[in-house]
Structures are given as C-alpha cells and as structure tokens.
Amino acid sequence: MTSEFKRGMQSALPTGLGYLGVGMAFGVIAAAAGITVWQVLLMSLLIYAGAGQFALVGLLVTGEPLSSIALTIFLINLRNFLMALHTATFFPNVSTGQSLVIGGLLTDETYGVLLAEGLQQQVVSADWMLGNNVLSYLSWTIATVMGALVGERIPSPYTLGLDFALIAMFIGIFAAQFRGLALSVPVKKIAGILLTVASVFFVLACFLPKSVAVLSATLAGCVMGVWLDEN
C-alpha cells in the first residue's frame, strides 16, 4: 500500500462517511422490499450504483420485466461513461487494467473528489485515485449490508424519510463542488452551464424517460462548457 494510495483513502473519508448514511438507508429500504441481505451484498458488489440500486428496488417492487429493469439501470448509469472518459485524461500512462479498475469503481462522489484534487495538484497519481475509489467502494458495500440487517427489524422505513437520503447527499456534494469551482471558474460561466442543463432536462423530461433526459442534459452541459471555454 503506497503513500499515495493511503492519501487517496484519506481524501475519500468524507465520501465514505456519507456513504454510511446513504448506504444504510438503501439497505433498510431494500430489506423492506423483501430483498435479502445476501442479495443486497451482491447488488452493492456487482452494480455499485447508489441511484441505480434505489431505482432497482423500486422496479423490483412494481414487478417490471427484466429487460425493462436492465435498460433503466443502464440509462441511469450511462453518465458514468462520460465521467470515466474525463477521468482517463488524468491518467494517460496507466495500464489498461488500472484504467478498467479506476473506471469501474468510479462514482459521482469519487469523481467529485478527483476534480477537487485536480484543482490542488498538477498531477494526480493513479494510486491516489485507486485509494479514493476503494475506500468509497468498501464503505458503500459495508453500509448497505448493515442497513439490510437493520431493515429486517424496521416495519416501515419510508415513514423515516430514508428514501430522501441519496438526494440529500447529492445536494451536499453539489454545494461543495460549486464552491470549489467558483474559485477557478467565473460564476457566470458556471451559471450558464447549469441553466443549460436545467432547461434541457425539464424540456425533455416532459416527453422522454427521465434517465434519457438526464443524459441529454449532461451532454448539453458539456457542449455548453466547451463553447464557453472557446469564446
């Protein structure tokens, strides 16, 4: 375990702590939906997607067909391809195996931590990113299993508002990232990108699945960011 790997794990501690709350909330809700502890463990190990796993539980409860579930989860997590493409630019000299591990364990939160690190360091090591990813992965998996164990003893978790936990975490991450970006990017440029994303999402969400609207809005925000950089 290198010093950079340890430093990456330290940088991911806030994410890990956040995952404890959100992961336990997911585990509780999953248990209430009749999903076993072992199934929760496999979901976290193999799918490892907070929003995707919350959506998966809802789809299983409503009895959606497997093809519909697979397509929905794929579309929800499609944004990870965009994040992974950008993440790859930080590590141009790593092996294919390391790239696959970094991309496979990438989440919104670990990507956000990477962006913050990139603002402070000219070069980000692959070991640092692996530490960032691994601690977050383990925290999420452990938390969801703990939540499932607790959920077996809670009759109605929705009355506790636990289904809002993931949204609350995203709001906190967004606020922190906005403050960080405002230090190096003009606020007008950030506002222009956010307005583009919001406008495209709300328009497309009126007649397209929300997962498609999210992906389209993300792409529109990327295009707007590039255009603003060039002008």
Give a written overview of the molecule:
This protein has 231 residues and is mainly α. The protein folds into 2 domains: 3-184, no CATH class; 186-230. The protein has 12 helices and no strands. The chain has helices spanning 3-11, 13-32, 37-46, 50-61, 66-76, 79-88, 96-104, 108-120, 126-151, 165-182, 187-204, 210-230. Helix 2 runs parallel beside helix 4 (50-61), helix 8 (108-120) runs parallel beside helix 10 and helix 11 packs antiparallel against helix 12. It starts with a helix and ends with a helix. The mean pLDDT is 80.
Helix/strand layout:
Layout lengths: L2 H9 L1 H20 L4 H10 L3 H12 L4 H11 L2 H10 L7 H9 L3 H13 L5 H26 L13 H18 L4 H18 L5 H21 L1
Helix pairs in contact: 1-9, 2-4, 2-9, 3-9, 4-5, 6-7, 8-10, 11-12
